[in-house]
Amino acid sequence: MKYFIYILAIIILLGVNIGLFGNLPIRGQSPNLLLLLTVYFSVDKSSYDFYFIAFACGLFLDCFSASFFGGWTFGFLILALALHTLSSQLLVLELNWKSLALLVFGSFSLVSFCLWFYTWAALKAGAPGYGLGFNPSLADFVPALIYNLLLLYPMYFIYYRLKALIADFTIRSRGVVK
Amino acid sequence: MRFIYTKAFAIFASCLAVLAILVFMQAKGWLDPLKLALLESPRPVIIMASGVTVPVKNFFSTIYQLRQITVENKQLQDRVNQLQQDMAQYQELTRENQDLRTELGFVKSSQLPLAACAVLSKNSFIQTDAVILNCGTDEGVGVGQAVLSQGYLAGKIISVGPHTSTALLITASSFSTDANVSQTGQSAIVMGSFSSGIILDQVPQTSALQTGWLVVTAGINPQVPKNIVIGQVSQILSSGNDLFKRAALLSPIDFSNLQFVFVVKQ
Asked: A173 lies in a domain?
């Protein structure tokens, strides 16, 4: 049932991303709320739900984007693995405004690179379509990054409420009375 | 413990495998129902969010662009005024074109050497029922030459300069020229009458004359060629007691609105 709640949350966030922020672009760019959600879940060491979040978010973005199918999912999975490894094995991450901003910057760069690489590899493998040029991608990078950073804390609040909802639901489903 | 043996990597590898299967299905075209479902699922939220965002965005962007809208409005108003002037000119050109087409129809069928002239002004100084043309001696125009419009006699040249000339219209009371009744060949005189009419005079009482008959130039004056139509008998003015028969002639030329004429060059 919690996976159903995850899917519902992803659908609502995607709808808000396209319907609300899609009409308020900065230099033609809108934020990626699903990326922010994946980042927050990936640094959470308590469970492996972040893989499901990453896979589902990537799948939705693949359907809504014009790039080769699988690029966003691939990028999100790589990001999830990298962040989880970073948070659990290499660093003791304490989430504050500095680490969050750095995380989002690194994550955004990684996903952008993975997307470009996936498209390049697909074209090399003979798949029909067009590739993402590097120069246009760089031109879009900074406005999109700034927009994502602006929504850092609002999205963190949504992540926190979603986690609380899942935790509450999990406790109730186990029959534990508070 | 090696990283590849960890649960995290195992789940990652499984996800990659599932992704590979999905990419294969997408290549085969089997993934369309799922894609459609994923595309349609956020649509209610998108519609709700757009319904709130778009009007607010339009409101603020309208306020922001208010100054620009005012400037644009003034430019558009100026453009409308200009277009109205252009429209008036266009209508004038259309009329002119129609006149030219009518004249051209006559020119194509005529064997006479003609000089095409535009009417510069009507009712010139002192002389009424006279027009000034933009043709002169440089174009081969001379005094006494016939002026035609739509194939009918419109007047004759009474004075000429290097680039302009004055033509006396056939409706002028001082105008007269020799004529023939085309049906009988009877010679007569055509004169202008009080700036509006054309009179056929000096037709013998013994000669037949009926309404509808055509009157043409007789060619006695060497500068006015023969058989140029002057008009059609519209009304018999004289009675049996008069010395000569007189009739009013009807010409299709609108003398008050002449734009283009042809001068028959010698």
From this structure: no
To probe the interface with A, which of B53, B54, B61 has the most A CB atoms within 10 Å?
A: B53
Residue B17 belongs to some domain of the structure: no
Residue B166 lies in a domain: yes
Residues 6+ apart with CB under 8 A from A63: B35, B38, B39
Among A24, A64, A80, whose Cβ lies nearest the Cβ of B53? A24
Residue A158 domain-assigned?
yes
Q: Are residues B131 and B124 in contact, defined by beta-carbon separation less than 8 angstroms?
A: yes
**CB count in 10 Å sphere of residue B232:** 18
| Domain housing A79 | 2-168
Residue B106's pLDDT is: 67
Q: Taking residues A155-161, report their average pLDDT.
A: 87
- Per-residue model confidence (pLDDT) at position B126: 45
Q: Do B45 and A16 touch (CB under 8 A)?
A: yes
A18 touches chain B (CB under 8 A): yes
The model's confidence at residue B200, banded by pLDDT at 50, 70 and 90, is very high
* Mean pLDDT, chain B, whole residue set: 84
DSSP state of A26: B
Residues of B with a Cβ under 8 Å from any A Cβ are: 3, 7-9, 11-12, 15-16, 18-19, 22-23, 26-27, 31, 35, 38-39, 41-50, 52-54, 57
For residue A176, being part of any structural domain is answered with no
| Residues A72, A58 contacting (CB under 8 angstroms) | yes
* B44 within a domain of the structure (yes/no): no
> Measured between beta carbons, which residues in chain B are less than 8 angstroms from residue A60?
38, 42
Whole-number pLDDT of residue B109: 66
User: Does residue A55 belong to the interface with chain B, where contact is any CB pair within 8 Å?
Assistant: yes
- In this prediction, residue B178 has a pLDDT band, given cuts at 50, 70 and 90, of very high
Shortest distance between the Cα of A178 and any Cα of chain B, in A, equals 32
Tokens coding B104: 């051209």
When pLDDT is cut at 50, 70 and 90, the band that residue A53 belongs to is: very high
A22: closest chain B residue by CA: B50
Tokens matching residue A37: 């959600």
Q: What is the mean pLDDT of residues A105-113?
A: 88
Question: Are residues B12 and A74, on separate chains, in Cβ contact within 8 Å?
Answer: no
For residue A143, tell me if it sits in a domain. Answer: yes
pLDDT tens digits, B121-175: 655 444 457 888 888 888 889 988 999 998 899 999 988 888 888 888 898 888 8
Structural domain tally of chain A? 1
Domain total in chain B: 1
Where residue B246 sits, what CATH number does that domain have? 2.40.10.340
Phi-psi region for residue A174, left (φ > 0), alpha (ψ -120 to 50) or beta?
A: alpha
Q: Which domain, by its residues, includes B202?
A: 114-264
What gap in Å lies between CA A125 and CA A9, rounded to an integer?
35
